[in-house]
Amino acid sequence: MDASSSICCLLGNPVEHSISPLIHNTLAEMLGINMAYCAHKIEPDRLGEAVRGAYALGIRGMNVTVPYKTAVIPSLIGIDDIAGKIGAVNTLVTGDGGYIGYNTDIIGFERQLLDLGITLPGRDVIIIGAGGVSRAIVYLCGLKGVRRVWLLNRSRGKAQALADEVNERFDRDAGGEGVLVKVLGLDEYSSIPAGKYLTVQTTNVGMYPKTEAVAIMDDGFYDLVETGVDLIFNPPVTLFMDKCMKAGANAENGLKMLLYQGVAAFEMWYDVKVGEKETSHILELMKRKMGI
Ligand code: ATR
Question: Which of 69, 85, 243, 256 is catalytic?
């Protein structure tokens, strides 16, 4: 680093185990950009102060992680339309007088799907879970013209609230196609028409150390899976993925989404295009760091 280095950083709590510094510092090195990226653990009552201070210091860009993806929004001078609809941002870009918020989680997820040869338009998708990450992916499905989302969740009420909101935003009934999002309980999967579906596991069930857990235990469910994407990446092979593969489906964890959300943020901050060479190298470094 020298006097002309630019700085980017992560705001969250906790941040000690974040993989983002590895992603961004490696990108900077490989692309010859004079920047450094660090992680800051922020106390809840100091979030606004942190954002204002970062702008005053000339911090070029920031990532925001749990638990601040929504809480940070009032501290921004603007928000991307889609991120505003999702109600969560993970990337802040310098604007005139403050930061503008974006959501690159959905960009990362879409790019992971593209690597698998999967595009969303016209497709039927099963999503398990209705929390923050699910919300972003359900919106992405609406934006990309998915035909139907089967949203399976433990508490139906929470999933229905999300479905109602998204169905209103992407009003399909007029076209006679029925609503975009249909809600089911975790044990109601037999209502889904027989077929093979892209299935996205968004809950934290099965995450280390409770690796023997899975949101849907019943093997019959996995006959519906064509490709199973578990957004968990620790352990690298979850019980959900194991069940998908035993049913003959393809399965992948969420490591690439994590990589690509970072890549998309870096591309916005520095107006560069990151290539295959960089992404595959960083993916290997991420796996090594996580002992995978
Ligand atoms: P995130 O932001 O990571 O999505 P979240 O908003 O806390 O996290 O959402 C967690 C998701 O995991 C929810 O869908 C939750 O189901 P409920 O809406 O019924 O709470 C789901 N989840 C958490 N623990 C679960 C469990 N033991 N069994 C089934 N689903 C579970």
Answer: 69
